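Researcher: Dear colleague, please comment on this protein.
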Amino acid sequence: MPEEISQSNGPVVEASAVSVQRMHSRGVAVEDVNWQVKAGEYWIIGGPHGSGKSSFVITMAGLRVPATGVIRHFGQDLAQLSEHDILAQRLRVGFVFKNGGRMFAQLTVAESVALPLRYHRNWTNDEVNAAVKALLEITELTPLAGSTAQDLATGWQERVGLARALALEPEVLFLDEPMAGLEGGHRRWWRRFLDELCRGAAWAKGRKMTVIAATSDFSYWHGEQCQYALLKDGRWQPLEGRPNAPEINELVKS
């Protein structure tokens, strides 16, 4: 990794006076976001439907330009980076899209997970296949390796998106409502898996990952590690302390 874009200290994600534009209109979803995320933190960003959660996490992940303000990843202003360096930064950040993780219809599960490795790593087929095998095992997708998107329910497609996002071993992982519409077994799996990521999973050799997830229902999320923030009425509101899910959901509704 180039020395000039590497940072061992300070926030891994930082927003300064950021306004986030809605994805499908010219309107602004949320204004004046000032936020710092430290390495290893676990943030849950919630709000009612239409509050701009998807626009928020996509923008904070560096996939869209903010309407105003500055977003920094690992201390670097994304707007000031060259094309080469912005790519290097993006490889340090993973993203899981909602509603099935945006699987490619023509690819199998194994091919989808292999795609970023074949594109960004100069690896042999054996090296890629070994990495894919390991990723499918930890996400419990091995029996579905030869399936395509049309063969899979949304919950399994979402896991494919997760495995693909983890393929390049990112330092920060953004997720857009990964548990929306899932049944209890899938939700429990996600909670356990993401908790392990933050704590430093054995399969990741103890390396802790920063996790930032959007949700419409705080009751899906709980744990001593979590920090919470609310998007509502165009405002960004970090929540102090460790409020429980019913308390937060009341804030969403009020």
Notes: Confidence is low (pLDDT under 50) at residues 1-7. The helical segments are 53-60, 83-90, 109-120, 125-138, 154-166, 184-199, 245-253. The longest strand covers residues 28-37.
